[in-house]
Amino acid sequence: MLIKFAVRGNIRFLSHAETVRVFQRACIRAGIKVQYSQGFNPRPKLSLPLPRSVGVESDDDLLCLRVREWQLTDNRSALSVSHLGAEGFKARLSEHLPEGLQLLSVTIAEGKTSFQPCSATYVLKVKPEYLDDKLKTRIIHLLANETLNIQRRITAGKSKIENQTLKIKSVDVRGFLKSILLKDRCIVVECKISSAGSIRVEEILNLLELGMEKLAAPIRRTCIQWQETDDRRQMADEGRTTSD
Predict the structure, then answer these.
(1) Which of 40, 88, 97, 225 counts the most CB atoms within 10 A of its CB?
(2) Cα gap 220→59, rounded to integer Å
(3) CATH architecture observed for domain 118-154+166-225
């Protein structure tokens, strides 16, 4: 199942791992039988391919979910997912999601197709008093540079059990910035996403010299572009629970 959903309001403060757990619990309450991986520590085959930073709203996030052939509808009968249909599945799951998580569409997909994000756009609504020439000059300067080296904190450690430490490394993020536009009192930043990573929201703010106090609304992620690939590997490791 491919589920497009939006994140609004206070629910945006959930971490990536917490968002995954919300969907897991909603599936249980809705009677949706999610497939599990094999092995000593089975995990539900449910993944969010593009983690969302805490505090950021989203227009079109994607949830990939693998379900069993049969799904309980009540204590007396059962319906297959194909019989229930995408709209029936959407209505069923929506009943058990908290306010702020809105299902936009549900698609029943066959096979082991996976989706990789290619780009995403962040919309920063800036308070009018900060939309000045200094900010406009800053945007021009950023786009004119061939390199933009920043200091990024990364977590070092082989596992969650051992003590992890923070390290600093230099990263050139210029290649991840496709465009920066001023539109309707908003800064619209289109970012490239690849196997090498992407630029983080807090890094965009730092480059623009914008603090959260200068924003008139929550940061919003939109226009996510996906690349579909035929993935023959199992989704055992796709249920990622860490956010960038």
Answers:
(1) 97
(2) 7
(3) 2-Layer Sandwich (3.30)
